[in-house]
Each structure stands twice: as structure tokens, then as C-alpha cells.
């Protein structure tokens, strides 16, 4: 492409589009039709320049022009409570449901790894000795020791907020870093399962496994499920980079990435509930069976929400991505 000739041939159209966009008065019907036509042509010109003869200055000017024209043609839209409701009842549960083939195996495999680590640590005193000195291990596992006092060492509200913030950050990292072929996600999962396995093994060796489960299960069921969902979705995003399927790699990453960002918001709400349970229920004076029952109920409510509402929305075509009117415009193919 001869860029100078191309610019000379189409500069008048770009200038006319710019003039229409600067009009202060309301455009007439013919002017609106002209604006739409020029917007489509300019978007095509931009695509041609980017692919054939990229020029930073010209590309920048046309990109701004196309963005302004798109705003004038499609109008602006503000988020409303209706959007929030739709996201919580359709978008988020559908996105979690669609990624179930990734996060369910992730949950099962991770739980198995944590259990095996706990068994190995609990049945091998030499492994326990490599973790900490005998006096330190007794301080960790004794009645009223660090494993128990951890949940009541701070005021419930501040502890719940701290737990929620930390878990939400971990989930967001899993979702976002999945694009790096999922490797950071695997590392985060291994660290979490190692910490869980160590606690499981040490308390089991001390004969206090029931106490440990009574402290972990009330909040841990929902909390770990959210982490597994984030990790599975992050791994799916990483696999999309390898195998985008029938879509182009760029389109696939854009669609899955937008859905992952939405899931980060939804999972933050789920982890808020888990953090509240950990801050107020886990250290409470309720009987162990009551605390565990609360955790099981919260987990069943979330799974029902995903498989009933999410499954119905997914079968209706919901993907968790933003609406078509909110996605980037695709350049027309005809000049």
C-alpha cells in the first residue's frame, strides 16, 4: 500500500467525519446516515493501515476518530442495579458452571494432594521434626495452641476483613495469572495444599484431628471451593492460549479474559461470606456440629446456585462475557 496515496484519497472523508462529530447542534437525518457510513469506512481504513502500512501518528488519529464516532453512533450506557442483578443471577453463575470441567477436577486433585501430604506428615515423625522443633510442634497443636488461637487472636470484624482481602487477592491472582500457561496458578494451589496438609498432619499426629476439622470445615468448604473455581478458571484461560478452538487466539483470550474478570468480582462476594464465617462462626462458642453444619449449608447453597441458576443460564446461551453492545467494535470488511 502506498500510504501517501491512501491518505490523499481518504483524508476528505476523515475530515468530514471529524466535522460531523464536532457539530454542536442536533444532526439531521441525512447527516446521521452520513456519520454512520463514514464511521464504517474509517474503521475499515484503520484496519487496513494497521495490517498493511502501520504508521503510529496516523493510526493514533484514526483510532481516536473511530472511538469518538462509535460513541456517537452507539451512545453511552451507564451500569444500573439491573445490570448487577443480571450479573449475579445469570452472568456469574453461568461462568462458574461453564468452567466446572476445570475447577471440579482441580478441587478433587488438590484435596487428594492435601490429604496425602497430611497422611505422610502425620505418620512420619522425621518429617514432623523437619518442620519444627518438638516444643514448637507442641505449642502449635496443644489445646489452646496456635492452631486454635489463630481464629480468635483478633476482633472478629477485622479478622474477617483481613481474611477476605487475602483470599480475594489470591483468587484474583489465579484468574489473571492463568494467562501465563497456568503455571503461577499451579504454584499457588500447591502452596495452599501444602499449608492445609501440614495442619492436617500435625494435628492428626497430636490426636486432635477432630479439633482441626472443626476449625477448618465451617469456612474452609466455601473458601476452598472459591479458590478452586478461580484456579480452574485460570488454568482454562491458560489452555485457551494454547488451544483457542474455532476462535482466533485473540478473540478467545478476550472473551475468556472478560469472563474471568467478572468471575473475580463474583468470587470476591463468595469469599466475603466465607470470611464472615471464619471471623464470626469458626471462633464462636457454638458446638462443633453446629459450626460445621453452617459451613455445609453455605457450601450447598453455593453449589445449588451454580448448578441450578448457572446451568439454566448457560443452557440459554449465557457465557459470563459482557453483552455484545459493550464489546469492542469489529472493523467492517468492506470499504
Summarize this structure briefly.
With about 325 residues, the chain is an all-alpha fold.
Poorly predicted spans: 324-335
Query: Taking Cα atoms only, what radius of gyration do you get, to the nearest Å?
Result: 27 Å
User: Would you report the number of β strands?
Assistant: 0
Kindly state the percentage of residues in helix: over 70%
Strand residue content: under 5%
Spatial gap, N to C terminus? 15 Å
The oligomeric state is single chain
Which structural category do the helix and sheet elements fall into? mainly alpha
What sort of overall outline do the alpha carbons produce when their principal axes are compared? elongated
Task: Give a written overview of the molecule.
Helix content is 79%, strand content 0%. It has helices spanning 3-21, 29-52, 56-74, 81-98, 100-123, 125-131, 134-141, 146-149, 156-177, 183-205, 209-242, 249-281, 288-315. It is elongated and about 85 Å long. Residues 324-335 have low confidence and may be disordered.
